[in-house]
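Notebook entry, structure prediction.
Reason for the run: the old model in the group folder had no record of what sequence produced it. Starting over properly, with the input documented here first.
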Amino acid sequence: MNILTPVFNSYAQSFLLHQRCACHIINLIVKCGLKRLEGLISNFRTAISFLNASNQRIASYKQYCIALGQRPRKFNVDMPVRWNSTYMMLKSIVPHIATFSVFINTNYPRHDGTQLLTARHWEVAEKLLSFLELFYDSTVALSGIYYPTSPLIVHHILEIATQMKTYENDEVLRPAVVAMKSKYLKYWREIPVLYAFAFILDPRAKLSGFGNVLGLISDAVGVDYSAYFTNIRDKLTEVYGKYDQKFAGVRCQRPPPAPTTGKKKQTWGKIFGGSSSTRTNTSSTSTPTVLQGGGELATYLNSDNVRYEEQMGEDFNILQ
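New structure, fully documented this time:
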């Protein structure tokens, strides 16, 4: 790294050489929220541990499910160091509310006469499961190794911001969402430059799409991105100028397009229209998106976007 960093700095600049792991940030955001609901989630761990602690109880639960005509299954306790295991625990247990709740409340000894799993616990579990699904999907998508993930991160930053906005006034999840939003702003108040560049270089997005995304994120988290948009546009021009100076004599021959494999489609309709929450341009990004001057970068950014509608029903290989 000591050798490579000065070499890359000559044209890539230092702000492109180190990026925090997006999946790790998602992990920090979610764990911060789960701490606020720990008192209610811990009862599910207690119930599962109680059931799994005895082979006799497991056999009794199996017989109980069979008697009700349902397929029995085994439940695993989550791991404290992995938030997504909490999501998987809830996902496995919520469909079995009726059988699991009755069995545990009947067999688990409570000296004060209260139930271990109440309707309040299940209400939190169901809402939390629905809320965390997007975070789990984002973690899986951004952990991929057989496709480029950097152009996808801005999409998921937008989706996470929108998800928190949707649930910020929810009676059950509000304490968790407030804490998660604070953690989100700590790391992503300013979107890393590399992620912004990767999104702009997606031919379906360019500067117009980036401006719309910033407007949507601004609506969700209450941050003004107008100056940030201008800064990113200037930095992109500056960095490209260094690349152009270094590699002006090199012109790659583009291969013919090849069939692509399955990737999760992104919500281009939200960015460019198709829902009530979108706009063609935003007040926070009213800076002109057309890049002045000549050169390959200006030609690319000033040309029409690849129409996202044509890609909604099929996969899109950005490397092609």
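Summary: Residues 216 and 285 are 10 Å apart (CA to CA).
The old model has been moved to the deprecated folder.
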